[in-house]
Amino acid sequence: MLVAGIGNIFFGDDGFGPEVARILAADPIDGATIEDFGIRTLHLAYELLSGYDRAFLIDAVPRGGKPGTLYVLEPKMSDVGVAPDAHRMDLESVFALVRTIGGEAPPITIVGCEPSAAQETLDLTEPVRRALQPAANLVRKLVADAFAVNAQIEERKKVWTEA
Question: Domain with 125 in it: what CATH number?
């Protein structure tokens, strides 16, 4: 499992993903790689093709909700309609790069937070700061659930091969 924080720490609430990744890395999840990718979209695109069973991407996701609202999204790589650009700092660009590079990315879950502001500052706004720990807890639960599903699948494979 890959857990990836995404965002620019120099633009306020856009630093949500890296901050949640930092919280998670302080108490690692067994079997999961936790990394702050920041704005390194090309690096993340290649990492997604490294053989993970699943990827959890943590990012600020403006969707028109109340600041600090958490979202769980499951995008499909086939829905990407932008051209790849290694200099853009958004998930659409990452997905377009993955598609262009080739290979198969794992199933992806985005844990997003509605930002208040993306302005030049190192500080998160208060609603987004309050969402950090709940987001970390949510990621831990989603990863644990994914491990449980994988274990069930492996058990079923074992039963079928022994039959």
Answer: 3.40.50.1450
